[in-house]
Amino acid sequence: MASGPPLSVDGNSPFHSRSSSSFPPAKRKKLTGRAFYESIKSPKYILAPMVDQSEFAWRLLTRSFISSAQQSSLLAYTPMFHARLFKQTQAFRDHHFQPTRIGPVAPPASSSQRPSDGEQMPYLDGHPTHDRPLVVQFCANDPNDFLEAAEHVAPHCDAVDLNLGCPQGIARKGHYGSFLQESPNLIHSLISKLAQNLDVPVTAKMRVLDTKEETLRYASLLLDAGASWIAVHGRRREQKGHETGLADWTVIRYLRDMLPTGTVIFANGNVLGHEDLERCLQVTGADAVMSAEGNLCDPGIFAGEEGRRSGEQTGEFWRGRDGRGGWRMDAVMRRYLDILYQFVLEKDPPKRTPLFTPGSVPVLSDTSATSEPPKTTSPSAPPPPPTSKQTPPPDAPPPHKK
Question: pTM of the full predicted structure?
Fold first, then answer.
């Protein structure tokens, strides 16, 4: 792979130059439901929220495999953030979400408290030219905490999502994620609080329940509370670890058929390869398909055949005799590191030798600028005297004794 900024499959950088616009951006008219979905160009592919995984550099890595003309086809989620911690702790916000030099900030009470223009420049998360569309996800069990946390990120994203799908033990202990299923009134309050008070739409990600009918009532609750769309994981809360099993796409199809026609639905589960994307859309009838583990295994999962052919030309994508193949891990790592150099460190990536492919001529790195010249002995200098450990040649005269 050539050095320089990460390129999309058509050879153009999918990431425009840094904008000079300052924070906060102009307030947008709040749209909801399908009108909102269409306003962000109805993305077909969704990079799922993954704790400690779907961070800024990973999102840009995934986007880099898609042509510049198709960037709007991918919607990305941040990792799940804890609403109470995000609301209470500046250090927590600074560590997890860096939209500007000073991180997410609440609107200042007066103009004297407003940060300087340099501090307000877009930096990483939610950058308007290369990290959109973007949804920020929170887990929460208190409507006020949820709203206050969401207000920090609203200027830097397109929507805020409520996690109702986490099945892990820590979610049970903290009473959030899928363990809110037994608290429908609380769920309604969480969503309606943001729907009525936040400048951007609120959405929800859920799991299916034990029956189709229960799942339909649950999904209707979320939509009635004000969720602009629902992302449906086709597994029940109990399906995790060794009991993960397969996601049930038929339940998602049932929701598609039974909910109002204009409802926006994302399907999640069983998407491990590119070929699963279209199959999931056809079976479920969903508006878009979401991938988590499939994306972690293959950040180029959303790239079609055009991207693969382009990758073959650069040596980034290999293909076996049976026609099957994949993105080379050394090429993927180069892309990821280049993103860190370009956007986080804000410097040019280092020059690297081309990727080796069978039949290509290896190119040695030019290390003349950094390596030390070889040590040489002057021709006129006498050879060093032999040490006591040196063995004389067999034809040498015996040592002279004084």
Answer: 0.82
